[in-house]
Structures
1.
Amino acid sequence: MDSEFFYPSKEVVKNANVKEYDNLYKKSVENPEGFWSERAKTLEWFKKWEKVLDDSNKPFYKWFVGGKINIVHNAIDRHLKTWRRNKLAVIWEGEPGDVRTFSYHALNREVSKFANVLKSMGVRKGEIVTIYMPQIPELMFAMLACAKIGAAHSVVYGGFSVEALAGRIQDAKSRVVLTADGGFRRGKITDLKGIVNEAVKRSATVEVCIVVKRTGHEVFMENDRDFWYHELMGLPIASAKCKTEIMDSEDMLFILYTSGTTGKPKGLLHTHGGYAVYTSTTHKFVFDIKDEDRWWCAADPGWVTGHSYIVYAPLINGATILMYEGAPNHPYPNRWWQMIEKYGISILYTSPTAIRGLMRFGDQWPQRHDLTSLRLLGSVGEPINPEAWKWYHKVIGQEKCPIMDTWWQTETGGFMITPLPITPLKPGSGTKPFFGNEVAVVDDKGNEVPVGEEGKLVIKTPWPGMARTIYGDAERYREVYWKEFEKQGWYKAGDSARIDKDGYVWIIGRIDDVIKVSGYRLGTAEIESALVSHPAVSEAAAIALPHEVKGNSIHTYVILRAGVSAGKQLEEELKNHVSKEIGPIAKPEDVTFVDSLPKTRSGKIMRRVLKARAQGLDAGDLTTLEE
Ligand code: PRX
């Protein structure tokens, strides 16, 4: 498998934005600051930086120090001075089939109006606005409006529930929450406002909630706190003229919460300058974006993929973006293929889970549609198994579209290990590091492991798109990512990987207590604490087991409180409880009732023992097991 190559066609190579890798890579790692400063010059700055990289306070790196910029100036304002003003920026399709489109001119109008609304609500530079919305254009307007006036956004994925939302609002101390009455998903209405109402009860800081009317179903609106978006946008205050705030390169653009090893989610902080440079460069080089393209990143803007590659990078690159609200198989499994044909999509970027899910329905669904507009494909979020890769390549890409399997993380801001369109591909490998990045696979001591062997993936060099810290917890940032290889100054990714004889990187999976379910990132600790919050539960453990479509699925073990009896009904109740607390994506496959859990002498649950047992495997070294 490791030696099976798929070569790009001559045409792909001839037309690619970047025509070679080896030489350029070599130069970029010899002089990363030179490479990144050239890239930064492709953006518009209010004031040029004085220093490309400040590494005087490791691991708290700073990029483009002294530079003044606003990402929105680059994503919108500068296009308005060119022919792109009237180019389509966004084509949006709702699940019920409604369509809305926005040129860059129209996008600017919507963003500016809403920015003025936010200002009128007292939103100021530096404060964090929580956004909890379905995949509707207003989600994008809201993010951009915040950034335009210098406020930071914290987008909480619309599939999360009360507890997850409340925890994030509290951590960010948001005064303003932006939401919608609901959204459409698989023909049903999601009750976002109901969840916000509950979450806000637990969050003392919230003073204002702005609600987009999407579904029109009845929702409870609190007097003097809740306002309808469309009503505010109709007021004279919502003028279409709004100045884009001048920001420092290193000013906070957003925080985005992600799961880690403890129950408390981490708010990774990204900035205006470095993030703009990094995301736009990776998008342009890897997805070869050109003015005539129609770009579809079929992620949710609530995750980093959506932040970087639905919203910011494509707009900076002046692309036309497709955004879709609903499920890939609604009402039929040809929904995506139909949209590719209808809008002439040229680049599709999605997750292995979505590919496997659609593959299940058979070739006849895509074959009913003309997919010849496609020229490049992409994959992200979890390792793609060669079978799914080949199906995607053959049936969707018709053997002419290279697949960009991009490895990266919420923490990295953009692609870290990825092919370029010209790279010979191996199904299941993200191939090689992006320009400027040096990566290695090492053992616990930091020695590189032999070719083909598994080890810990580290990034040896800083890059402009890196998260700057964990919001409000710099110590945790240092501890989680930098402590283990502090001496070497390397970033620990939390993934295991191997590098083959051709230097291709193969990601194996997480080595910490993070579970990737359908590409979504969840912490075992979050699931466990949701279980323990149920009155029947005394202790709980969650593990991941391989799943054919989702990549991994969640399996849980529970010790009940004295006097509570186990049973099918309680199992269902506990599964639903997790779903209600965190969100449907976290719903366990099953709950096994047990009398004890394997623990170390210091009381840590040994999840690997549970995992091995569940798979009928040898649990390995058990010397630290207490019972
Ligand atoms: O385990 C890796 C997996 O997703 C993790 C990061 O998750 P998150 O922060 O939610 O970001 C997902 C989207 C960037 C990584 O630590 N992962 C991401 N991309 C890939 C991947 N695993 C294998 N191949 C990939 N292409």
2.
Amino acid sequence: MYNEIDLDKIDINREPPIEEPARQYHYMAKCREWVRAFEQKNGRRPCFSTQTFGCQMNARDSEKLSGILQLTGFAETTEDEADFVIYNTCTVRENANNKVYGRLGYLHSLKKKNPHMRIALCGCMMQEPGVVEKLKKSYRFVNLVFGTHNIYKFAELLSRSLETDKMIVDVWEEAEQIVEDLPVERKYPFKSGVNIMFGCNNFCSYCIVPYVRGREKSRDPKEIVREVERLAADGVVEIMLLGQNVNSYGKTFDPPVSFARLLQEVEAIEGLSRIRFMTSHPKDLSDELIDVMAQSKKICRHLHLPLQSGSTRILQAMNRYYTKETYLALVEKVRKAMPDLAITTDIIVGFPGETEEDFAETMDVVKKVGFDSAFTFIYSKRTGTPAAKLPEQVPEQVVKERFDRLLTTVQDIAAEKAQQLTGSIQKVLVESVNDHDASLVTGKMDNNATVHLPGSAQLIGRIVTVRLEECRGFYYYGKLAEQP
Ligand code: 5AD
Ligand code: SF4
């Protein structure tokens, strides 16, 4: 819809419409006027830069912000050159917040050199109590602050912000609605994330996400299918369906629509070659989903299944609703249905009360499952979560030592698993020219592993057949096995 809208036909002197997304298009037209005036005065277009911290959800949100900025006439550039800098923040671990405060110090020095520079902050960190107060007190040079629930109002907030030097803050407690049909500027022409739900209802005891992203809300399946159809028609071959817990998609609809059913509808869309999804909570992974995956020609042979801990006692304290045994049984079931499935995971080390025995259970699961890769995290105390109040926080030195042991084991196992595919023929979606060697291109296999192969930019966006020649730990060097 948005590519059919002509902003120049909108009369910005009229009252802005109440309904969405029409209201936002009104403000986009107003921003475009501002951009034109800027251009006349300065002889160039204003430039923007976005920085994304955190997960795939944030990456997708940033594409929405870029879409609006580009439609209104801003040009993209580097942070040092930008007139409008926007940080889309994460708060899942404490160091994510620290990174943002650190970067703000740097931005302040840039702003002193370029007083026209405007700075906006959004994303999960803004939803956390205390952050806005701290910004108001110590970071007055920030122009605009908004949260996760009103990101769809970005055009309106931008328009207000462009007309004042005062700090504008608009952070909501809860989401009001899901607004469809706003512009998006994809980072890659050939692949895209697609939100299927927002928020999380699980309240894992260590996690701040349910507090900053709010309650679970599923998007209408018709809207999702419509978006994927449009993406496929626009040349996208791979999509990633995004939600904090995709397995509970559609449960609140009347009648409910399962995630497996949604996958089937998406699979039927012509032009798509690959479907990925993220993230699956082990407690909700249904037999129906396993069946649909096993039957599918498009769903990638990759399952991200966060373990968090291998100790049933700790899992209970984490509020995860599965045990060591049920997790292992689930892995066995999915492997039986799909022997070539890559399984990856997230693990937290040093949750309050974690003993050496608990940690040994985690190591045991890691060895038994043989994860293809794992994101390992040191537990980070997040104020406001139940775990933050637990008495037995594990000493830093003990956690660090466990973390190192876990990381070594995870990497050894992943390298061993990766080695097994050396010599095999694989389909690879070529994504970019290699950063270090321009005679190579880099792509992703079905199981999400990275492959470098000789080739040129012409291959970008194509799915090619590759022989894996050499394994280097968790990536490969390969060669085209057939002419594309
Ligand atoms: N400390 C450390 N890791 C965390 N995660 C979520 N909250 C915390 C925390 N407080 C990890 C989990 C989750 C991943 C996205 O981040 O492993 O799966
Ligand atoms: Fe956080 Fe648990 Fe929700 Fe994942 S499922 S976002 S870890 S509360």
